[in-house]
Amino acid sequence: RDQFALAARLFNEMIAGLREKEKISFFLSQMALRSLESGEKRATRREISILFCGIRNLEDISHHVESHAKLELINQFLSLFESQLKISGGSMDKFTGQAAIALFTDNKSQNSMLTMASQLRKELSKLNLKHHEEKLPILNVGMGIATGAVVLGPVGSQKRKDYTAIGATVNMAARLHSLGVKNSDITIHLD
Fold it and tell me: What is the pLDDT of residues 151-182, one digit of tens each?
């Protein structure tokens, strides 16, 4: 009986641990989870590609819809982004409220990033057509892509860290996203 009780207790602890990990994974990127599991504590300098994608006309939308409706529009966009990212093999860096930042760390995934940007553009067109039919605001989404050196790893204070990329390449992708070049929603810079 003691062996069965011990086995049941260990099994229940394992299930509780898996549930906890599932809860945590809802709030952390896969890169952050891998960093936690490996015990990685230092940031490294790497060449990567970054896709910064966000809603450019969110301020205008705010004048036409209530806050909860605006949040729903943002979540639709971010869900669409994340589904395309999963297909492409990139890694989610973060959601910034009205934008998403994805990292592509090898040559193969960098090619996938370009395919993702193109496919995301098609899916956003479908979403905007649906929004038009439902008399919802059209999302003006921009994408900035930059390739170059970043510092990648845990960044933050002693009490709280975020696993992210920092550097001029990240800033370049963010700037390219917001350019708003006429008739262009994807702007690319290769360092």
Answer: 988 888 888 777 788 999 999 998 888 775 54
Name the phi and psi angles at 78, rounded to 5: -65, -35
Cα–Cα dist 94/174, whole Å = 13
144 in Cβ contact with 177 (< 8 Å):
yes
For residues 27 and 50, what is the distance between their CA atoms, to the nearest angstrom? 21
In percent, the amount of the chain with pLDDT more than 90 equals 26
pLDDT given at position 189: 58
Neighbours of 44 (CB within 10 A): 9
Q: Where are the beta strands (DSSP E) in 4-160?
A: 44-55, 91-95, 99-104, 141-156
Cβ-proximal residues to 144 (8 Å cutoff; 6+ apart), any chain? 51, 52, 53, 172, 173, 174, 175, 176, 177, 178, 179, 187, 188, 189
Q: How far apart are CA 83 and CA 92, in angstroms?
A: 11
SS3 133: helix
The whole-angstrom separation of Cα 63 and Cα 53 is 22
Q: Is 140 exposed, middle or buried (0-12, 13-18, 19+ CB in 10 A)?
A: middle
Burial (Cβ within 10 Å: 0-12, 13-18, ≥19) of residue 100: buried
Sign of the torsion angle spanned by Cα atoms 45, 50, 55, 59: positive
> Is the full-model pTM beyond 0.90?
no
> 20-24, 85-89, 168-172, 177-181: which range is least confident on average?
20-24
